[in-house]
């Protein structure tokens, strides 16, 4: 089975500016694939190239094994959903969904059946006769999705489709989008700068920075085993510490930290004794305690930020090192410690990962 999309050595230049540097990646059939990165990293450019709205400076683009590099956008079996859903305001919901099917000259009875099927899928059958202005933002976005999926494209491109919605709705729509993708079996290529959204929905994520792909992996691998410091920093929250490698054992690095602390870090990779490395630790792997615990390090809480289900702590180890911890609150809802209090910090085994800069 060929890949759904193959992007091979694609370069995109705007005059002397290179927006994409030799990008290569494969997207599998039936995959929810996300292009994630900060503003300006080139993700929208790559999406527009797949759609055919932008030509490329060099490279090849294949769709299910066929070279489509020179194929105009309207001949690609690809549809796009944009941030602003751009429904036709004068058409009803049903007419909007039928739009692409009419263009395909599908028989009227088939159009009626397909529209009913799509409206049922997005749970808006009862709104078929309404016009877009009579719908909420979330409902409009679902109609835009149904309209784009109705002609059964092989690939659906989604350009930040949730960013115009409020937070609560955005979170609810994540689940709906993922379900829709699984129900239809269409390959989704989703563009976002929101790492939570990417982690929640994707089968795999490509993290991009300055026109280059930094890492392509499943969400959990990206989160737990970031390949570069950029990925570690961009996805989730992270502590970075400079450490010196004192020895290696079973793929782990024994490291010395400022203040005389020692830590064993996983994924030593190419680290060598004597070398200086960055250690990366997720705050949720560091716990704070108000009584002594095994391997607990004495510390003072400098700042706390209450988060409802948890609290973020900025703590200063007795040796002067500052670290961030995220801990669930007590059963009665109180944070474990408050600012200015002394306590103990425990670093979970294998919490630290070695990153070579
Ligand atoms: P955002 O999230 O802000 O949309 P992005 O990651 O999608 O960002 P792109 O829109 O792909 O980024 O742009 C990548 C780079 O290419 C940016 O530096 C942008 O300024 C540049 N660029 C995009 N389109 C053009 C253009 N038509 N002419 C010149 N430069 C462009």
From TrEMBL:
It comes from the Bacteria. One of its GO terms (molecular function) is ATP hydrolysis activity. SUPFAM superfamilies: MOP-like, P-loop containing nucleoside triphosphate hydrolases. PROSITE patterns: ABC_TRANSPORTER_1, ABC_TRANSPORTER_2. Keywords: ATP-binding, Cell membrane, Membrane, Nucleotide-binding, Translocase, Transport. It holds the Pfam family TOBE_2. It catalyses: ATP + H2O + polyamine-[polyamine-binding protein]Side 1 = ADP + phosphate + polyamineSide 2 + [polyamine-binding protein]Side 1. Its EC number is 7.6.2.11. Residues 5-235 form the ABC transporter domain. InterPro entries: AAA+_ATPase, ABC_SmlMolc_Importer, ABC_transporter-like_ATP-bd, ABC_transporter-like_CS, Mo/tungstate-bd_C_term_dom, P-loop_NTPase, PotA-like, PotA_ATP-bd. GO terms for cellular component: ATP-binding cassette (ABC) transporter complex. The keyword Transport applies. Belongs to the ABC transporter superfamily. Spermidine/putrescine importer (TC 3.A.1.11.1) family. Part of the ABC transporter complex PotABCD involved in spermidine/putrescine import. Responsible for energy coupling to the transport system. The complex is composed of two ATP-binding proteins (PotA), two transmembrane proteins (PotB and PotC) and a solute-binding protein (PotD). This is Spermidine/putrescine import ATP-binding protein PotA. It comes from Novispirillum itersonii (Aquaspirillum itersonii). The gene is potA.
């Amino acid at each position: 089975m060929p890949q759904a999309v193959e992007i091979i050595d694609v370069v995109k230049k705007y005059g002397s500016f290179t927006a994409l540097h030799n990008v290569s990646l494969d997207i599998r059939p039936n995959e929810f694939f996300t292009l994630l990165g900060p503003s300006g990293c080139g993700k929208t450019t790559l999406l527009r190239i797949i759609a055919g709205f932008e030509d490329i400076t060099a490279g090849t683009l294949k769709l299910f094994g066929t070279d489509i590099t020179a194929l105009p956008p309207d001949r690609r079996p690809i549809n796009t959903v944009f941030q602003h859903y751009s429904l036709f305001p004068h058409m009803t919901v049903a007419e909007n969904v039928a739009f692409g099917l009419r263009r395909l000259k599908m028989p009227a009875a088939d159009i009626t059946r397909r529209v009913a099927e799509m409206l049922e899928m997005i749970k808006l059958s009862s709104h078929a006769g309404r016009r877009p202005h009579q719908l909420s933002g979330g409902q409009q976005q679902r109609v835009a999705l149904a309209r784009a999926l109705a002609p059964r494209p092989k690939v659906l491109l989604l350009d930040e489709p949730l960013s115009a919605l409020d937070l609560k709705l955005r979170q609810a729509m994540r689940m709906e989008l993922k379900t829709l993708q699984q129900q239809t079996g269409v390959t989704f290529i989703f563009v976002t700068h929101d790492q939570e959204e990417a982690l929640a929905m994707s089968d795999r994520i490509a993290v991009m920075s300055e026109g280059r792909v930094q890492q392509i992996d499943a969400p959990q691998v990206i989160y737990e085993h970031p390949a570069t410091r950029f990925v570690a920093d961009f996805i989730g929250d992270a502590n970075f510490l400079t450490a010196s490698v004192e020895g290696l054992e079973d793929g782990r690095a024994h490291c010395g930290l400022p203040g005389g602390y020692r830590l064993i870090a996983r994924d030593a990779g190419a680290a060598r004794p004597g070398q200086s490395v960055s250690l990366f630790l997720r705050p949720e792997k560091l716990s704070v305690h108000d009584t002594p615990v095994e391997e607990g390090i004495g510390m003072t809480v400098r700042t706390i930020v209450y988060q409802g289900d948890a609290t973020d702590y900025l703590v200063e180890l007795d040796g002067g090192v500052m670290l961030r911890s995220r801990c669930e609150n007590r059963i009665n809802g109180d944070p474990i410690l408050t600012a200015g209090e002394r306590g103990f910090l425990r670093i979970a085994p294998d919490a630290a990962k070695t990153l070579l800069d």
